[in-house]
Protein: N-acetylneuraminate (7)9-O-acetyltransferase
Amino acid sequence: TWGEGRRDAYQERPKRAVVTPTQLLQGRSSLRLSADGGGGSSNCFPLPSWEPSAARVRPPARFFAHCCHGGVKMAALAYSLGKREINHYFSVRSAKALALAAVLLLTACYAVSRRYQGNDTCEYLLSTGRFLGDKTWQPYSCMMHRYKQSEAKSCLKNKYIAFIGDSRIRQLFYSFVKLINPQIKEEGNKHENIPFEDKSSSLKVDFLWYPEVNGSMKQCIKGWIEGSSSKPHILVVGAATWSIKIHNGSNEALTQYKINITSIAPLLEKLARNSDVYWVLQDPVYEDMLSESRKMITNEKIDGYNEAAVSILNSSSKNSKAKVKVVSASRLIAEETIIQSSDGLHLPESSRETVSNLCETQPLEVIMPKKNSRP
Structure:
């Protein structure tokens, strides 16, 4: 009959070799011969039957359950084999060696960082920060301590501090000395040197009027290095807006500024070997409030002068043991408060006190005794 002929033809077909998943994982070479490709219990998906489609029977539900159970067993076996291989190559001893290597690498990276960034543990004090509320400035990575008058006098006893630069540096000078003597008045000729002395602590603070980075400023700094006069323990320097103003913002003035800073940078580094030397970047201005005689002092020009100063000072200090510290956080402070300026150029008093405190805090943290021995 037609059905018997089909069965005979099927039985005469060559038998197919089927490898079970377990045999494949264990690496066995034995093969199970199956006539129908799906009769064994280890085959989840049998080969198609040669019976007419009407005679096909749907596998029972327990068949699929058995397949899932087999899949779980396969996964467990694969995990066991993988874990065995990992344990073979990754022992406790090798783990300790890797941990030691990681520690040595981190130590080396830290040493390199200290070599090029200095030993200051609060290195971001002068460069980053944010306002907490309206008036409290908080540097990132460290806390600012607001020194009392008695603390400052004790730490700065027998010290000499110099501020050299333009009217903006003069503002920082007054904010600094008001920490020692809050009653001091900002009076006298603004374009002259201004001395200050506190006899009770033998502290001397000078403002030296050098509004341009030029040969005169260079001779002043050179006199401290080569002369017999006492060198300042702390030096705060900065100037640019005066050059922009008197040269009407010309490109030639910026070129000369770069030449002059390049000439002064090695002297500042020599002084920085035994003193704390700070270069204060120029703050932005509030252009809408500037007088007609200052309209050429734009933020674009100021950015050009600041970029020149940072590039030259950083480049010069790469091969130097001493480093001039660049105060850039003052610009962040000014960006938030310059709108409160009375003339668009100078910071309001509260903001310049914050900038002055930045220059005070870092050297005072070095000079100041430990907390439990503070007066």
The longest strand covers residues 203-209.
